[in-house]
């Protein structure tokens, strides 16, 4: 899919990168990605995928904007309290980049709908905040062989990993087995705003790398980030 002259000017700093060039930017324009969850992680990831020129973003979330969201969910604002998060995010993303296509879905997705959405995209970003959705995405992405970029943040800590579902690579279960049966949420324990921005931005970076097949992704590894001590640890995941 060729770039217009206006798009060439918009993305020129990326086109200058040898790993991307015109071919990579055109591939981004023709790519499709699914973002599940338009909270702190999803807002951060979506804005950078949009401005980077990903051609089609599908936004999936069942929630509405509340006042307590605004501390970290940067695509929403006070004028949109009570609005569907996907609609609020879509309005902000259209202002950031009018050249992209957006599909907003405001509902809980059962397996049938989720599988349909996953089968239509190149990469899925798990920006949800609950283990049930994460396990659902892991199962269906594995079935569809669609890469999954998973992130999580709580308190001042975050983690991120990528699952390609290629032969002899781990799944999300390889990571979630360390969490136990019940996961904590930021509602219960709190979260510092910048940590979701850091993890969400890294998810966008991983999704672009997976899409363009450049660099070394986090497949087989998980990064653990402690914002309070500003340390990053890497853990290998078992297959």
In short, what is this structure?
InterPro entries: ThiF/MoeB/HesA, ThiF_NAD_FAD-bd, Ubiquitin-activating_enz. With 239 residues, the protein is α/β, with parallel strands linked by helices.
Write the layout of secondary structure elements.
Elements: H1 5-10, H2 12-15, H3 21-30, E1 32-36, H4 40-52, E2 56-60, H5 85-96, E3 101-105, H6 111-119, E4 123-126, H7 131-144, E5 148-154, E6 157-163, H8 172-176, H9 186-189, H10 193-212, E7 221-226, E8 231-236
Q: Would you mind describing this structure in some detail?
A:
- The longest helix has 20 residues, at 193-212.
- With 239 residues, the chain is α/β, with parallel strands linked by helices.
- It has a single domain (31-236), classed as Rossmann fold (3-Layer(aba) Sandwich).
- Helix content is 41%, strand content 19%.
Features:
8-stranded mixed sheet, alpha/beta, 239 residues, Rossmann fold
What spatial form do the alpha-carbon principal axes imply? globular
Mean pLDDT across the residues is 94
| Approximate helicity band | 40-55%
CATH-level-4 superfamily name: NAD(P)-binding Rossmann-like Domain
Give the topology string: H per helix, E per strand.
Answer: HHHEHEHEHEHEEHHHEE
The rounded distance between the terminal residues' Cα atoms is 37 Å
Structural class determined from secondary elements: alpha/beta
**Tally of discrete structural domains:** 1
From the 3D coordinates, which CATH architecture would you assign?
3-Layer(aba) Sandwich
Tell me, what is the CATH class?
Alpha Beta
Radius of gyration: 17 Å
Number of helices: 10
Poorly predicted runs are none
Using the coordinates shown, work out and report the CATH topology.
Rossmann fold
Q: How large a portion of the residues is in β-strands, by DSSP E? A: 15-25%
Biggest sheet character: 8 strands, mixed
The total count of strands amounts to 8
Numbering strands along the chain, what is their spatial order in the largest sheet?
3-2-1-4-5-6-7-8
Keywords: Nucleotidyltransferase, Transferase
Protein name: Molybdopterin biosynthesis protein MoeB
Organism: Actinobacillus delphinicola
EC number: 2.7.7.80
């Amino acid at each position: 899919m060729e770039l217009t002259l206006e798009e060439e000017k918009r993305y020129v700093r990326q086109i200058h990168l040898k790993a991307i060039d015109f071919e990579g930017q055109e591939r981004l324009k023709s790519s499709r990605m699914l973002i599940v969850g338009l909270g702190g992680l999803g807002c951060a990831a979506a804005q950078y995928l949009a401005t980077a020129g990903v051609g089609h973003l599908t936004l999936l979330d069942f929630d509405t904007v509340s006042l307590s969201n605004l501390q970290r969910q940067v695509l929403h604002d006070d004028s949109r309290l009570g609005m569907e998060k996907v609609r609020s995010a879509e309005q902000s993303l259209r202002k950031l980049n009018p050249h992209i296509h957006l599909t907003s879905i405001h509902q809980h997705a059962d397996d049938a709908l989720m599988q349909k959405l996953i089968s239509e995209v190149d990469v899925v970003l798990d920006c949800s905040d609950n283990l049930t959705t994460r396990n659902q995405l892991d199962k269906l992405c594995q079935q569809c062989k669609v890469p999954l970029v998973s992130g999580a943040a709580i308190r001042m800590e975050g983690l991120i990993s990528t699952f390609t579902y290629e032969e002899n690579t781990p799944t999300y279960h390889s990571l979630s087995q360390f969490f136990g049966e019940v996961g904590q949420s930021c509602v219960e324990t709190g979260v510092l705003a910048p940590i979701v921005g850091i993890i969400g931005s890294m998810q966008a970076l991983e999704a672009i790398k997976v899409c363009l097949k450049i660099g070394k992704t986090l497949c087989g590894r998980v990064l653990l980030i402690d914002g309070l001590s500003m340390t990053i640890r890497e853990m290998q995941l078992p297959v």
